[in-house]
Amino acid sequence: MPLSFSLSHAAPAAVDTPLLVVVLSPASAVPDALLDLDRQFGGAMSRSVLRRDFRGGRDETLLLVGGDTGVQRVLLVGRGATPLTRTAARRAAAVAARQASKLGVAAMHLMLEGGSADANAVEGLVIGAAAGSWSYLDLQTPPPEKDRRARLEAVTVLAADSEDVRAAFTAGVAVAEGQAIAKRLGQMPGNYCTPDTFVEVGRDIAERHGMTLTVLGRAEMTARGMGSFLCVAQGTSQEPRLVALEHRGGPEGQQPVVLIGKGLCFDTGGISIKPAPEMEWMKFDMSGAGGVLGAMEAIGRLRLPINVVGIIGSTTNMPSGEAVKPGDVVRASNGKTIEIINTDAEGRLVLADLLVYAKQFNPAIAIDAATLTGAIVIGLGHNAVGVFSTDQGAANEVLAAGQAAGEPGWSMPMWEDYREQIKSDVADMKNTGGRAAGSITAALFLQEFVDGFPFVHLDVAGTAYSQSDLGWIPKGPTGTPVGTFVEFVRARARQ
To answer: What is this structure's pTM?
Structure first.
């Protein structure tokens, strides 16, 4: 059952809930807004703060149990001493939702200390609660009845009554729903999430939000000369898919923001096959495409007054008798030839033809997201998105959007000197320049297929999913880059 959200302006002591979560910073006393509730709990909150049983540190929790009516439990969650931002509120709410799931409560109320008129923080609370409660149970057999716990189904945010807060709450729900789509697609095994799955999800989004949907298959892409994309699909019997969604929220003729996503439903590496250990994580190689569809869901829900196009390219990179080989030369839809050095550098081959396809929309800017290189993980770890662009102004806009969304990025160089690494003896370029500066040469490869519009490339290989539990969210898909995409489009819509 999907999580439902509501907004309330009630006093915390007046609500009837199995769990009230209060997000607190380090303090020497309970805030005035909680004194009535503290009296209901016999001063337990005050004593806990005074004795330093609860110090408000980041991710710290303390559970207080009350009676059978009214506020039955209070969960104090620390957000640390950092400023109250959307990101800080999101993390605290995610911790709260995970604790609620462990307790087995079906509903919770959620508030910041002293209530909140901070719209950014309210948006963060909603996104975080959804992130912390998210799970993928579609393929698991339910436990015996006696071992089952109730799942969190309803979250009520307690906040000030203002237009800004209501708008932020609505935006939080939209982003949360978009991230849920991206996460579900990411967590689905490769035999369940196929290229046709992206068609189905795209069609559903288009129908619900009045968008235009275009779907290309192998025949249509062959007619367009998309030899770069299609060479990746040579090794699979599954039909490759290009899916484009058009949100026409702006005036007719307005140049759209174009969002592009790599959608490799599984990446074996092809003939240049990957090592067996941990190859199962390559089901997440479609995270860029999942992020685009999630962003389009949020944009559609918010009815943003701007034109946006979302484009994804989906296939599976498999070894077979028909698979593309190292040394082969293929031709992209803009006529440029590519020598295949490593068939595991396949994402850029798909994106190349998507970037050429994007030109027909006359983009104001194109932003792609892809789990493109292991090199970016070596360079930036799992804490930052690699941001690449020859247009520093465009890059700065995307960096600001990522920071606001809690998906921070780091600007990487795209100097011409690196381009020497992808020069070929037999074609216009090679599809990889080797291990050195691998994420940079990949971005320079993509730049070869951009013609006449600003372009920013996001390498999310280290941030779209996590192979370990992060504490505030479990291991698996993170929802990146949905937040960055949506925040960028919202900012452009306000201009």
So the answer is: 0.96
- As annotated, the active-site residues are 274, 348
DSSP annotation of 210 reads: T
Closest CA to 15 of 72, 66, 92, 67: 72
Q: What residue ranges in 47-190 does DSSP mark as E strands? A: 61-65, 73-78, 107-112, 154-158
Tokens of 286: 């479609």
Instruction: For residue 26, say if its preceding peptide bond is cis, omega within 30 degrees of 0.
Output: no
- Considering only CA atoms, which of 483, 406, 478 is closest in space to residue 175? 483
Going by their DSSP bridges, the two strands 73-78 and 4-8 should be labelled as unpaired
Tokens of 455: 């372009």
- Classify strands 73-78 and 20-24 as parallel, antiparallel or unpaired: parallel
Sheet holding 455-459, edge to edge: 212-216, 241-248, 307-317, 257-267, 365-370, 455-459, 385-388, 409-412
Sign of CA dihedral 337, 341, 346, 347: negative
Tell me how far apart the alpha carbons of residues 92 and 307 are, in angstroms, rounded to a whole number: 34
Report CA 69 to chain centroid distance, whole Å.
38
Positions of the chain with pLDDT under 70 = 1, 114-115
The pLDDT value recorded for residue 2 is 78
**Count of residues for the chain?**
495
Quote the pLDDT of residue 297. 98
Residue 77's closest CA among 19, 135, 164?
Answer: 19
CA separation (Å) from 331 to 213, 328, 350? Answer: 27, 10, 12
The label of the residue with tokens 């850029």 reads 348
Q: 17-29 as b/e, with b when 16 or more CB fall inside 10 Å?
A: bbbbbbbbbbeee
Edge-to-edge strands, sheet with 329-331: 329-331, 337-339, 429-430
C-beta separation of 312 from 292 below 8 A: yes
How much is the pLDDT for 27?
82
User: CA end-to-end span of the chain, whole Å?
Assistant: 38
* Positive or negative torsion for Cα 466, 468, 471, 474: positive
- Among residues 347, 476, 454, 456, the alpha carbon closest in space to that of 411 is found at 456
